[in-house]
Design brief:
Rossmann fold; binds NADPH dihydro-nicotinamide-adenine-dinucleotide phosphate; 12 strands
Length: about 300
């Protein structure tokens, strides 16, 4: 029985150590080494190998190395094989750090001051309290909830939007299409932490921006395809949005000639908001392997119908 890891090799080497210590009965292989393909029961990958079902006929479980599964073609993974996304403490902690940094930067006008510094402009703006600022998080899943909890601690007026109804102490909760407009109308700083699905692709568009208060800030930490980049540039030009912080782009790396690179009111980072951490992710996967063997519910099981 073996486990095949197909992702970043340094993290893979650490997983191999932890697996050897905790489940010595499972052989651990780092792609492109596979051992006997018929022995492969478990696969963890960012991008699964081609011809998955034919190559590994006894596969029982597929893990995504990331929190999302939008990079997977789920139709290539036989329906009887559960697909599990990454739910692990290190990834959550990294996202909470980045989202907090970005929201505080938006709140304290950091992007404007960075632009002013480049222009040699000394121009203070009023300092507002967190309690006067309304933050809204699209997506109240593992990451969205953790981010909301932290931001609530700063005193921001926090709200979240999800597909199903939620109840979270101190957080105004909105759900579904019917709740979206009201959620947007009360949001000064909008953070996207949605999974990329057929329903959420292109959601950050002109149509959505028009429901935000004028001068709102967009922070996209989900996926590049959530955002219609031309609509963002247009909204910035019209001052419908005052600034944007983007960690993800439609094409990564962002092409050199793309206007976002030079835009004075856009802050860009290269998809580093958070990353799957070697030790905590190995623990999460080992825990799910135990659950799988004992017939318990898997943590992060993907619903193929919903796409996340
Ligand atoms: P979860 O699956 O735990 O949460 C997803 C949330 O989005 C849920 O609250 C869900 O609602 C909501 N949602 C999904 N579809 C819709 C919809 N159509 N309308 C309204 N709400 C919707 O995911 P995570 O929190 O773990 O991760 C979220 C995403 O963050 C990942 O998919 C990935 O794209 C991104 N990410 C980005 C990283 C980066 O470095 N930039 C790193 C890690 C993740 P409900 O609760 O009702 O199901």
């Amino acid at each position: 029985m073996s486990f095949l890891y197909k992702s970043e090799p340094v993290r893979g080497a650490r997983w191999a150590e932890l697996f050897a210590a905790q489940t010595p009965e499972i052989d651990f292989h780092i792609w492109p080494s596979t051992g006997d393909p018929a022995q492969v029961r478990y696969l963890a990958a960012w991008q699964p190998p081609e011809n998955l079902a034919d190559t590994f006929p006894n596969l029982e479980l597929v893990f995504s190395i990331g929190a999302g599964v939008d990079q997977f073609d789920l139709s290539c993974i036989p329906a009887h094989i559960p697909v599990v996304r990454m739910v692990e403490a290190g990834l959550v902690a990294g996202m909470v750090e980045y989202a907090t940094l970005a929201v505080l930067a938006a709140h304290r006008d950091w992007i404007t001051y960075a632009a002013q510094q480049r222009e040699g402009v000394w121009k203070p703006m009023p300092v507002r309290t967190a309690s006067s600022r309304r933050v809204g998080v699209l997506g109240m899943g593992v990451l969205g909830k953790a981010v909301l909890e932290k931001l609530h601690g700063f005193g921001f007026q926090c709200a979240g939007w999800s597909r199903s109804e939620k109840d979270m102490p101190g957080i105004e909760c909105f759900a579904g299409e019917d709740g979206l407009q009201d959620f947007l109308a009360r949001t000064d700083i909008l953070v996207c932490l949605l999974p990329l699905t057929a329903e959420t692709r292109g959601i950050l568009s002109r149509q959505l921006f028009q429901h935000l208060p004028q001068g709102a800030v967009l922070i996209n930490l989900g996926r590049g395809d959530h955002l219609v980049e031309a609509d963002l540039l247009d909204a910035l030009d019209r001052n419908q949005l005052s600034a944007a912080i983007l960690d993800v782009c439609r094409v990564e790396p962002l092409p050199q000639n793309h206007p976002i690179w030079q835009h004075p009111r856009v802050m860009l980072t290269p998809h580093i908001a958070s990353m799957t951490q070697p030790d905590t992710s190995a623990e999460a996967v080992l825990d799910n392997l135990r659950r799988h063997r004992e017939g318990l519910p898997l943590v992060g099981l993907v619903d193929r119908e919903r796409g996340y």
